[in-house]
Amino acid sequence: MLGNITMGQYYPVDSPVHRLDPRTKLILTIAFIVGVFLVHSLWGYALVFGFVYMTARVARLPFRMLLKGLKPLRIILVMTFLLNLFFTAGDDVLVSFWIIRITREALRQAVFYSLRLLFLVIGTSVLTLTTSPVALSDALEILMGPLKKIHFPAHELAMMMTIALRFIPTLLDETDKIMKAQMARGADFESGNLLSRAKAMVPLLVPLFVSAFRRAGDLAMAMESRCYHGGEGRTRFRVLKFGKHDALAAGIMVVFLAVIVLIP
Amino acid sequence: MSIEVRHLSHVYGEGSAIRTVALEDISFTVREGEFVGIVGHTGSGKSTLVQHLNGLLKPTSGQVLVDGEDLNGEKVNRRALRQRIGLVFQYPEYQLFEETVAKDIAFGPKNQKLEAAEIDRRVRKAMESVRLDYDTYAEKSPFELSGGQMRRAAIAGVLAMEPEVLILDEPTAGLDPRGQDRILSMLEDLREKEHKTILMVSHSMEDMARLADRLLVISGGKLAADGSPREIFSDPALMTSVGLDVPEAAKLCMALRAAGYDLPEDLYKPEELRERILAIWKEGAAC
Predict the structure, then answer these.
(1) CA–CA distance from A178 to each of A90, B91, B162 (Å)?
(2) Eight-class DSSP state of B168
(3) Exposure of B151 by Cβ count < 10 A (0-12 exposed, 13-18 middle, 19+ buried)?
């Protein structure tokens, strides 16, 4: 029943992009986003598309996986396009009827803004598809490390993220199980009006909360019994290391950005 | 009420990278009044199998027939059917949610839209079946009970629907020996006094030796064997091949036979074996 909800979209295959240091991927994704904002011509977007397409090929991601990430954004994309199309001021009128005026500037802006949004989402999808959530939160912790100086709880934040991510599948399984168990007792989650549906959730939510608290307690106990005391002086099992691949990836990104800036 | 499973297969995540075949071409029939044990190694597909028997999971291919009718047919009221085929999940105590034990047990009958008096009668009866004293426990919060009591309260929640067939997934897992014994003797009573059809999943061969009339051995999603406990426990090669053990009594019996004692090869109940050993010992003492 909950099988079609995939949390975290990590696509587990082995590829040069998957093997990159998560910090590299995070920084390069930010660089890519900046790059997308620097593009001011259709040729530039063609180049961006080519770049994303090649990255996806190297990462062995099926292209439809990237497009799937766009699905929840389709309304925003269409709205962005339409709003810019109808409400951008300009002189060079292309179409005009009733109260609608479409100018060349508006069309240009609508197309560019939509493309920009599109590539932002696709670019970040490449990051989340090729980086496991745990690696990503590790990278975040290290990159936020300098903020510890101003008492920003970088480690705690990353730990919370890791734990939350770790428990999503567990709690989903649990929900599925409790739902089935209550259905076996004749519970009905699928019909009735809003109120009766909300009421029907009680037999699901109470056991789920009880079990979440129980698990949290167990986990806290297990962490404490292994002397967990926060981030200070804590070493890592998997130490992140920059390698040749990371340098190569950074180099490619620099060339990409340079070309984008140089394209008129 | 009979349940017939025909060429049942179930595949998780069809068409994706994580496609796994959980069950493959399983066929068997459970007759009315039978006590069927389903045994298999962890991950063999036992739990997936029992969830098909009351329509919580849909087979990828094959059929489940209840009294000759396809459970997944279009006109079948699966909700009503689930109340005739009661399923007790693994660790059922984690599904308790009401303020009091009595209210929790009444959840099933209430969903059946029964009258208050009938619900009350069923709650009392179910509590009696699982040996929870009504006056002591009915008004307690289920979260105040001990682990074993919670388990029994949860089972009472299914019994209160008065299903014709009762399916239990590992009902004794994680309980102390006394708690386990309570559940098993409760099941014995249900079979003897109420003639319920019972299916029990377990990997305790001792439990199976005590209760089952018939065993289904599942291995790697396939039905590896289907027969009486006597047939199955006298074939240790089969049990080893599917990663299971034979009951202690059967092991002892085999060891004694290997040591030259005159014992039949198909003893698996502790009481039977005791009788035989005592008989041999008395003979020995006589001469």
Answers:
(1) 59, 10, 21
(2) E
(3) buried
Q: What is the pLDDT of residues A146-183, one digit of tens each?
A: 887 888 888 888 888 888 877 888 888 889 899 999 98
SS3 of residue A190 by DSSP: coil
Residue A66 CA to residue A61 CA, distance in Å, equals 8
- In whole angstroms, what separates CA B38 from the centre of its chain? 7
Q: Cα–Cα distances in Å, from A192 out to A55, A204, B141?
A: 48, 16, 29
As for the ipTM of the complex, it is 0.84
For B63-105, write each residue's pLDDT tens digit: 999 888 888 888 888 888 888 899 999 999 888 999 999 999 9
Q: Please name the member of B17, B82, B86 whose beta carbon is closest to the beta carbon of A183.
A: B82
Name the DSSP class of A149: G
Spell out the domain ranges in chain B. Answer: 3-229, 247-287
What pLDDT is attached to residue B287? Answer: 55
Residues of B in contact with A185 (CB under 8 A): 82, 107-108, 111, 157-158, 161
Q: Which residues contact B104 (CB under 8 A, 6 or more apart)?
A: B96, B97, B98, B142, B153, B154, B157
Contact (CB, 8 A) for A176 and A189:
no
Amino acid identity of residue A261, one-letter, is V
User: How far apart, in whole angstroms, are the C-alpha atoms of residue B251 and residue B247?
Assistant: 6
Give the single-character DSSP code of B155. H
Say if strands B197-201 and B35-40 run parallel, antiparallel, or are unpaired. Answer: parallel
* pLDDT of A18 strictly over 60: yes
Q: Are A187 and A13 in contact (CB under 8 A)?
A: no
Say how far apart CA B9 and CA B177 lie, in whole Å. Answer: 36
pLDDT in tens, B244-266: 888 888 888 888 888 888 888 88
Between B51, B94, B111, which is nearest A187 by CB?
A: B111
CB A19 within 8 A of CB A132: no
Q: Are B16 and B25 in contact (CB under 8 A)?
A: no
- Characterize B50-62 residue by residue with b for buried, 16 or more Cβ atoms within 10 angstroms of its Cβ, and e for exposed: bbbbbbbbebeeb
Interface test with B, best of A185, A213, A214 (most B CBs within 10 A): A185
Residues of chain B positioned with their CB less than 8 A from the CB of A183? 56, 79, 82
For B200-218, b/e burial (b = at least 16 CB within 10 A) is bbbbbbbbbbbbbebbbbb
Is the separation of the CB atoms in B66 and B72 below 8 Å?
no
Cβ-Cβ contacts under 8 Å, A209 against chain B:
none
Pick the range with the lowest mean pLDDT from A5-9, A10-14, A23-27, B106-110: A5-9
Distance in angstroms (rounded) separating the CA atoms of residues A30 and A32: 5
Q: Residue A131 in 3-state DSSP?
A: coil
Whether the pLDDT of residue A235 is over 90: the answer is no
Please give the CATH topology (third level) of the domain spanning B3-229: Rossmann fold (3.40.50)
Closest alpha carbon to B130 in B148, B155, B147: B155
pLDDT of residue B135: 93
